[in-house]
């Protein structure tokens, strides 16, 4: 199932790896990229989930894909993309249009990640305590209080 905008588009890339150049190299694997009649690529990310919704992590992932594709190919990539979700077993699916981050914001995020990995910057605690339940660093972090983890 494709969104109406992509039904007449041609599949340009499937399961393809791209790498941008520049100050920080962004490498990303694209699930699908369709070329519309105007020659612009539109990215599609395929996800299997129990709930039909897009997440901020999808926006980040697709934004990084956009930067990598443009950086390697020089082709125009739309500022929006689609997340296609299906339930486990593939019985139901849904389409979610997302607006992508600006290239400068993707680069800033990549630079911050590198600084964190180098240890030159410290990480901040999440504003979403529920994410701590699956974090492998929750004991070292000490946040949130263990009572939040038991919920």
Mean pLDDT: 88
Unreliable spans: 146-151
The largest sheet, given as strand count, sense and whether it forms a barrel, is: 5 strands, mixed
Derived from helix and strand composition plus strand pairing, the structural class reads: alpha+beta
Strand content: 25-35%
Cross-sheet strand order for the largest sheet: 1-2-3-4-5
Continuous helix count: 4
What Rg is obtained from the alpha carbons, in whole angstroms?
Answer: 18 Å
Distance between the termini: 37 Å
**SSE series:** EEEHEEHHH
What general outline do the C-alpha atoms trace? flat
What is the strand tally? 5
Helix content: 25-40%
At a glance:
Helix content is 28%, strand content 27%. The protein is built from 4 helices and 5 strands; from the N terminus they run E-E-E-H-E-E-H-H-H. Mean pLDDT is 88; it is low at 146-151.
Structure description:
A 5-stranded mixed sheet has the order 1-2-3-4-5. The longest helix has 18 residues, at 56-73. Mean pLDDT is 88; it is low at 146-151. With 151 residues, it is an alpha+beta fold. Strand 1 and strand 2 (27-35) form a beta hairpin. The chain has helices spanning 56-73, 103-118, 138-141, 146-149, and strands spanning 10-19, 27-35, 41-48, 80-86, 93-99. It has 4 helices and 5 strands.
